[in-house]
# Entry
Amino acid sequence: VNRIPMLEPTNSQEAKDFVGIALDLSERFDTPVLLRATTRVCHSQSLVDTKERVEKQVPAYAKDPQKYVMLPAFARLRRLKVEERINALKEYADQCELNEIQWGDKKIGIIASGIAYQYAKEAVPYASFLKLGLTNPLPMKMIKDFVEKVDKLYVVEELSPFIEDQLKSWGIEVIGREIFSGIGELSVSQIKEKILGIKSENPISLNVNVPMRPPVLCPGCPHRGVFYTLKKLNLIVSGDIGCYTLGALEPLSAMDTTICMGASIGVALGMEKANPELSKKLVAVIGDSTFFHSGITPLIDVVYNQTNTTTIILDNRTTAMTGHQDNPGTGKTLQGSDTNMVDLEQLVKAIGIRRVAVVDPLDLEQFEQAVKAELMADEPSVIIAKRPCVLLPTTEDNKRTYYVSEKCIGCKQCINLSCPAIHVISNGKVEIDQTLCNGCGVCAQVCPVGAFTMEVK
# Structure
């Protein structure tokens, strides 16, 4: 990995621009390029300048097995090319515009990249900065020139001291991890305190106790009934990556493992092989797009290895967590044009799953009965919980909404659904925020006294 060039944007504009730069570098140096975007850059947004679209001619394909077929003999020859490439990249790093020295007060010199640069620039705006856009390979000559002209040198970076360790290996004296924690995220106030000794107060702090607001499934989300039911049945749930990972949080608390994309089915298979007695109380949960991406192979393993694993595929007709992209099961390409739609039910049957149930996850009784039935089966089975994501555009608006009547006894059973539309009022009973309610009706199904009434909008 350390032979692959890495770009690290500090803001939205650079996040856009660096994609094009990475493509150019890839062609120029004949190499993969890693674009590292950290959490705060990914979760921020701002206006950006666009450029004219440039379309380049794709070069004709040329056979070159010594480059593309990594047999041992070819790999040894290719390693020479890789070393030549990294040396050329090191020369480029000292010249490229992505690495920039910003002179200020030379008593303090700061080397930073990514969002850490933004924090440091705000905390100590008058300092001298070496802003790194290309963080691998590092520009050795530029760094040494910068170091010679500042009195005190800091490296500001989150988590692992990647830049700091390289500088120290070059014999450069630098202050980094000894004052900046490797745990959690940096902040402007933390950098100001560590470098300047100035402890600043939070300017937006409130003199009231603000309740925690953890992320939750959307009102009307079809996954809510799934996890409510799995918790009710006290099952072990091997989970996966998607909106539904929120099923691990209280009060749903119905997911036991999430390792990586597509791992849910394989983990459930492994748990059952290690502990056969778990087969009647263990399910794997995976989204439709995640299943298409990396869930088919482990489901084949389930059939091949002859376990009784029950897999629940949450088919919400989209890739919701990352922006509602289409997937092979929607019948649309990412560009919105029609394409072949993979039938989930037929697909899992073709793999060798004989027991397949398609249910509506908002019908709690139907879903619960399906789960109980498949857990008791002495063969692998799949439940397809099919209901479109509530945020998808539909041909007509939702015509239903729910209200809480005077029958409410304040038992708060509905609060266990973790629906943002339901909240407790001053008399201990509950109320529904009509601006949020999508009329899914799950609350009405869990209420023991029938306090929820439906109205047509």
